Structures are given as structure tokens and as C-alpha cells.
Amino acid sequence: MKPAERNVVNEQSEHYRYRPTNSGAKVFLYPEWLGTYRYLAGYTLNRGPLDNFLLFFIRSGRFAIDVPGKDRIIAHAGDFVLIDCYEPQSYEALTDSEVLWIHFNGISARMYYDFINERAGNVFSTANSQFAVNRLRRIGDGFRGGGRISEPVMSRYLTDILTECAGSADDSPAEESAHQYAMEDVQDFIVANLAQPLTNDELADMACMSRGYFIKEFRKATGTTPHAFLVKARMDAAKRLLSKTDVSLKHICAKCGFSSPSAFCLAFRNAEGMTPLEYRRSVRV
Fold this sequence. Notes:
CATH architecture of the largest domain: Sandwich
Helix content: 40-55%
Structural class: alpha+beta
Oligomer: single chain
CATH class of the largest domain: Mainly Beta
Number of domains: 2
């Protein structure tokens, strides 16, 4: 969905709404409203209670945050902002800005808010901001792709995000941990998007690294190249479908990212020494 607010750049902004199931609302953390907005300087929001919490990450620009009972806080690019929307909210874009944001709620949302606010305040940075940002992006990608991430997975991502926010900017050795999180995120992303034509450039961008440096770090973390990891992940997924289901080779190709049944059969024979159908028969004996 596109926004209809003044001083929000419509073409470069989007948002999605979500209503949890009754059981999900009782058990999980969940998003209610999330998106990416590009604001023009001068954007101002003054809003009454919403009965949820707002977390946003400033990718570029600068904001002024007004929290009841506190002096005005200035937030800069690279900062997270956490707001209790059960109270009135007010903030302003001091410059042109880009923000990744999520309104969330759930059984432990208040406890997370209170803990983070007591430890870090309403505006803070973290040791591995990219780790949290990638999980925010992943929730958004699930809606953007026309589908939905399962409620347990969304809750896990939100838990990861809020746990990262509960730390501080000096809680861990920055470079090594950041690289570890980035490589784990990329591996998770590959496994979740096998049907997509993933490229090293796209994966490097996700990890916020140059293409050459990303390939080097990925090999160091996994012992293999991104392409080889992707091929193996596709093959493993195909083997699971062959052994556990009766779906056609065409369906497996579409699900696992192979360009055609003939390309799949050739790759499978090279990897396993038998055809896909021979493999299916062998594991069901």
C-alpha cells in the first residue's frame, strides 16, 4: 500500500497492515503495521494513542522525537527509535530522511519496551544494527512478495530485533559479530528464497559489503562459495520434496529454483549419481 500523507514521497514509500489470528495474538509478538517511508524535511506527526509500540530505524536523515515527560531528543542516521504508542506521539523529520518502521504488539511487547527504554532510552544504537535491520526487511519482504510469513517466524524475527535493541552499542566485538550475523542472515535468506534468481551482487548488498569482500567472508564462514551454497540448498530442498511428497518434477523445479526439468535432472544426476525419480524410488523402498 502507498501512503497518503503530506511530505511523504509516495513513489519511494510503502506500508502493510497485519491482523494476527486470535491464538497468535495470545502467544506471539506480531506486527500490526510496517513499512519503509521516505520523508521530506518538515514532515510532522502528532498523533493520539494507538495501543501498540513503534520501532523505526533511520537509514538516512535526522528526526526530532518528543516523548511525554522528556526533553526533545534528536535521532540521527543509524539510530533506532522506540516509542510507546499507548501514549500520544510526536516526531518531526528535520531533514529529508528514509526510515524502516514497524508498529508491533504481543504478549511480551510491554516487557521488551520497558526493559529497552530503561536501559537505552527512546533513541539508541546497537552493536549489530544490520542484524536487526535485515530482520525488519525480511518481515517486509514477506508482505511485499504477496504472501505472508508465518506467525511463529514473524515472532522470532521480532524477538531477534528487540533482543538486539536490548543490548548496547558496545556489548560485543563489533566487526566479527557483525560479519557473523550478516553471513547467518544471508544463509537464511538463500534457504528462504530458493526459487528466486539470487545473485552475488544482491546478497552482497544485503550484507552491506562489496561483492569481492562478501564472497571472501562467505567462504570463510561456510567453507564454500555463495553459488555452491545456493546449489546445495536447492538440491537438499528438492531431495526433501522427492522423498516426502509426490509432487511433479515441474513443481519441484519451480519451488527450488531450477530453470527446467531437464536442467534439474542433469544437476541431480551429477550430484547424486541417479535421476530424481530413481532417487524417489530408492528412498521409499
